[in-house]
Amino acid sequence: MKKIFLLIEFLGNIVLSTLGGLGRFILFLREVLRWTISPPFRIGLIFKQLEFVGNKSSLIIFIAAFFVGAVLGLQLGVIFRLFSAEGLMGAATGKSLALELGPVMCGFIVIGRAGAAMAAEIATMRVNEQIDAIEAMGVNPVSYLVVPRVIASVIMMPILAGIFLFVGVVGCYIVAIFYYRVDTMVFFQQLQWIVWWSDVVKGLVKATFFGFIFATIACYKGFNAKGGAKGVGEATTRAVVVGLLSILVGDFIITLFQI
Amino acid sequence: MSEKGLVSLINLRKTFGKNKVLRGLDLNVPNKKLSFIIGRSGEGKSVTLKHIIGILKPDEGEVWINGVPMHNADERAWEKIRQQIGTLFQDGALFDSLNVFDNISFPIQNHTKMSLSKMKEEVKNLLSIVGLPSIEEKFPPELSIGERKRVGLARALALKPKLLLYDEPTTSMDPLVADLIDNLILNTQQKLEGMTSVVISHDITSVMNIAEYIFFLHEGKVYFEGTPEAFCSSKDELVKQFLTGGRNGPLAVPIV
């Protein structure tokens, strides 16, 4: 009997701490939204973050997109060749990149690069009392630190996903032309036939949501860091793990609404 | 100025989990003086300071700043009142990604519409007050601990506050740097007429060197308040033990 009570207590604690954490995150989200529409609007800081999230992620996005597109082309080509339908390679790659791989891979890459850096920077500021100092100077830390990062991520993610799609298709095109000897005209005709503009828009909408999700989670984890260097490390790891899982869950939910 | 003075804390209570840190603290900071809040580690000195700047909210009790009741105030009201308070954190809490100029001008940029040329002049003045000319372009990691504190103090003075708070300014410093910081606090107090300063400390040498008024915290309350002379001549066993250190007395000292 005692063991059952202990189990109930254990499960109750887990439920309580999960609900408590969710409640705190929702309050944080409310603060972020409130300061997004309230002055001061920190244009300079937003541009700085746009450069950090977008410009500094672009090279890795280019390289990753090219090879993802090329590998997809190589793998799909093996199957399509069985049906003498190699011309559909670009279409299949484009469709999967536009709807799923572009926004999701982009989200993963940007979390690993910019999301982790956001969480680590804000967590370091928290443990070194720099966030207390911002507050003590009468400046709202959510408005100063979080809002510019969230806005920049929301703007930059669809742009990066668009680049990912374009470069991925180029990677697939090169494989199709030089490895499978597909005709250029056929490649693009099939691409246009299968990949619709609505697919591209759906993918970009997903990317926008992913930008909001990962930036908010990264900033939240950094903001609530405790302890010294260990706390910074834990906050960064949690930001990346929770961000990655949230993107996957978010992807499923958004797809449910889109199909 | 209200009768309550610049800072009044009335029957302040604060608990973290099972730890009752403040247990009905009453504290009225004397205006235009350099006061010290002292006590052993964990007695709630920093918690008291965080209540004065509104980073922590009391479970019970009242916080009055400049005659305004702030215990139920919202964040907007606190942001306004904080502009009248300068705070120097333990290691300066400078922003690593900003240079000295941007660090010091941070509150000015956020709360005023001062032109860049005027701001440069202002930062220069502030740096001369803390005795650090021509280091505007340096970044915090390039500064020594003493320099970081000075820059932190210059930043705390940027909005010309009425109240200046120092959080353990000499903790973990060698005696020479600690003496330098003590002089800096004293000089700042003398240079800026009408300034009310509160220093959180457990450095008894600093207290005896520069304090004008002392609040000694024990068990979450003010146990003693008065001038340094009164503190030194107190016959109270607890005060005596804190002054002289050592194991003999009412203060329990853990065996290490």
List the helices and strands and how they pair.
The complex is a heterodimer of chains A (259) and B (256).
Chain A: H1 2-37, H2 43-82, H3 89-127, H4 130-136, H5 141-178, H6 184-194, H7 197-223, H8 229-258
Helix pairs in contact in A: 1-5, 2-3, 2-5, 3-5, 3-6, 3-7, 3-8, 5-7, 7-8
Chain B: E1 7-16, E2 19-29, E3 34-39, H1 45-52, E4 60-65, E5 68-69, H2 75-82, E6 85-88, H3 100-111, H4 116-129, H5 145-156, E7 163-167, H6 175-191, E8 196-201, H7 204-210, E9 213-218, E10 221-226, H8 228-232, H9 237-244
Parallel strand pairs in B: 3-8, 3-9, 6-7, 7-8
Antiparallel strand pairs in B: 1-2, 1-4, 4-5, 9-10
Helix pairs in contact in B: 3-4, 3-5, 4-5
Walk me through the structure.
The complex is a heterodimer of chains A (259) and B (256). Chain A has 259 residues and is mostly helical. Chain A is built from eight helices and no strands. Chain A folds into two domains: 38 residues; 217 residues, no CATH class. The mean pLDDT of chain A is 93. In chain B, the strands form two sheets. A six-stranded mixed β-sheet of chain B has the order 6-7-8-3-9-10, sandwiched between helices. In chain B, strands 2-1-4-5 form a four-stranded antiparallel β-sheet, covered by helices on one side. Chain B is α/β, with parallel strands linked by helices and 256 residues long. The model of chain B has no long low-confidence stretch (mean pLDDT 88). Chain B has a domain of 178 residues: P-loop containing nucleotide triphosphate hydrolases (Rossmann fold, 3-Layer(aba) Sandwich). Chain B is built from nine helices and ten strands. The chains are: A mainly alpha (259), B alpha/beta (256). At the A-B interface, helix 3 and helix 4 of A face helix 2 and helix 3 of B.
